[in-house]
Amino acid sequence: MSMLTPPGMGGKYRITGDKYPRMRRPTNRRRIVFAVVAAAVALGLAGWGTLQLIEVFSGGDGKKKTTASGRVADCKPAPTPSAAPPPPKPAQVKVNVYNATPRSGLAKAAADELKKRGFTIGKVGNAPAAYDKKVPGAAILLGARKAQDGGAFQVLGTQVRGSQLKTDARKTADVDLILGTAFKSLDTKKNADAALAILSKPAPEPEPSSKC
């Protein structure tokens, strides 16, 4: 073995002239690439965590919320349901009073009392043949569908206990009060006024709710 042969070479390589083998190992490119990718991922996670902490401690803007899956969802308040319109005043309810019983004078007496209580009175007389002597209850309130939806039935119903509600195909806003066999008199004015006050009291407006 020559004295110029590097140790550990076992005589495999010999130095000749000005050429000699390099002793360092070749660079491992995979390790370098892996290290670069890992560093990029770590920086990305660190930045995302910083943004989350800023959002938490700043209280957020009240418009976004992070879901369980990590996605950011818009938090928009649900529309507030509109309050129901107030019922009509007694003067806005036109009442036709009909007597479906064999007793005379009931329709006129009831109409006079309703007029004193502020209602607008229309026709007064005997009930049509379809209802004459055929109403076993206290009374029937008959009118168009809008009388039921618009509150006229409810307002007139405060004056007669046990009245039944029926609708027909009329186009007008008037309501028929058909007095039946069980009718004795209108409810007392005190009770009727109390019922009207409860009916006219506005319901509390519902609070808007969030979709988040």
Strand order of the largest sheet: 4-3-7-5-6
Strands, count: 7
Integer average pLDDT: 78
Total number of helical segments? 5
Number of spatially distinct domains: 2
| CATH T-level fold name of the largest domain | Alpha-Beta Plaits
CATH architecture of the largest domain: 2-Layer Sandwich
- What does the largest sheet look like? 5 strands, mixed
- Low-pLDDT residue intervals, each spanning 5 or more residues: none
Which descriptor suits the 3D outline? rod-shaped
Classification by helices and strands: alpha/beta
User: Into which percent range does the helicity of residues fall?
Assistant: 25-40%
Strand portion, in percent? 15-25%
Distance N terminus to C terminus?
Answer: 83 Å
What would you report as the Rg, rounded to the nearest angstrom?
A: 45 Å
Order of helices and strands: HEEEHEEHHEEH
Assigned CATH class of the largest domain: Alpha Beta
Describe the structure.
The chain folds into two domains: 29-74, no CATH class; 90-200, Alpha-Beta Plaits (2-Layer Sandwich). It is 30% helix and 16% strand. It contains five helices and seven strands. Strands 4-3-7-5-6 form a five-stranded mixed sheet. A two-stranded antiparallel sheet has the order 1-2. Strand 1 (64-66) and strand 2 (72-74) form a beta hairpin. It starts with 28 loop residues before the first helix and ends in a 12-residue tail after the last helix.
